[in-house]
Design a protein that fits this description.
By secondary structure, this protein is mainly α. The chain is built from 18 helices and no strands. It has helices spanning 2-12, 20-49, 51-67, 83-102, 118-137, 141-165, 170-175, 179-188, 204-234, 237-240, 246-280, 294-313, 316-339, 346-366, 372-393, 399-402, 408-417, 431-473. Residues 32-46 have a biased composition (Basic and acidic residues).
Length: 474
Amino acid sequence: DGGGGGGGERSNDDGLGLDDEEEATSATAIRKRYERERRQRERDALEASGQGRAARGMEGAADAAAKTDFRGLISSCFEPHMGGYVAAEERELCEAVARLVAGEKWHREENSDNSVLTSATQLFLQMKRSLKRCSRMTRGNALFQLHVSFKKVLRRYAEAIWNAAAPKGADAAVASDGAAAAMVAAATTGALSPATTWKVKVEDDMLARVCLVVETADYVASTLYGLAEAVRGFVDEEMAGGVEFEDVEECFVDLKARGATLLVLAVETRLDDALTALGAVSWDQYHEIGDESAYVGEVAAVLRGALPLISSILGEANESYIVDKLFGSFTARWRWAVARCRRVSEAGLQQLLLDTQVVRSNLLSCVTSGASGGKRLVEKEMGRAEAMLKAAAAPAEALEMLLPDATSVERLRVTEMRGGGSGGDGGGSGGGVLRRMAEARAGAAASMAERMKQARAAMTSSSSGGVSGAGKEK
């Protein structure tokens, strides 16, 4: 029956109740179990003899060796002897400085957005290459000492470009602290002639060089932070904190300041002839009021020659800084050059006032949009000069109204300006003098307008005649 048939099948399978595949699998499992037991017996035997502990120790040492960083182990053996290599790198960079400065073109590169000397960018590129070469061999003390060499090279570069740009006498002019301030102070005290140590003659080509030095010094000072970060990224961590370029940055900030001072003094030297001419006029014998004086034209010519050149090279920030300094010093000198005139006639006061207003207008026309400080200085100093002239032409009691905050020196100068000959008693007519000064200025302006009108009419007539003549010939 069914039950008997089932019992017969199990007896054919040796009573295990498994088919052939299950039986084979069971045999494999049994073999694996016996293999594991055999290996465990062998390990137990090794443990008993002490060889197992040695084997595990060797395995641990191998693991530790695999995790060990061998980088720098060989090169560290040569670290005490790397001084010669660093010295060679420094020597090569110093030679590069001399070569690059000697081959500098000293003009702004075409299609360039800045006025940085090519030698500066090339020097930084060579220092970058030197840094990479050294970092391949060591990141220890030799690399740290290389950054010290970089600082020496950069100081040498600052000296090299200054010597190549500054004309003879420039060092003496800018050596004293506050050379421009001392120049103004000499004028303020009423000295007959300011000290001449600040004067320095700079031709246009050298003026352009100084401008390039100012821009390059600005570039180097701002790039040093990136160089310091690059060195810190290569040198060993325990030395990274000692990497700094602050002293070199100060060196280039000082170079920029010296260049800016030299630019101001160079233009002031050119303007000095006009101030000398102003003081040489016999104002007590001055009779006729005309257009602006010849020295006013000299001031305009100097400004037209120097400022566009400076503006074409300097960036806006540096240009505004220098223009502010220049106008601040020159307007103060102009005011005191006017104030040193003594016993000025009525016509002389009127002429000086007219000249001051023209110079003021010329200066304001040169002030850039970013040089707001320069505009304020011009308005303040030239306005003060005009007030002193008006006070000299008015009765003595009008001084408090025209110059309520006058200093003792200003009061003295106004008093000495009064009393000129042949043009009036310098204050006897009081308001009448001021009125005549205003009328004279208006008359001069009307005369100038009339001459311009006549010139335009002559040009129109000449143009019409030319056209007419051409028509007749045709």
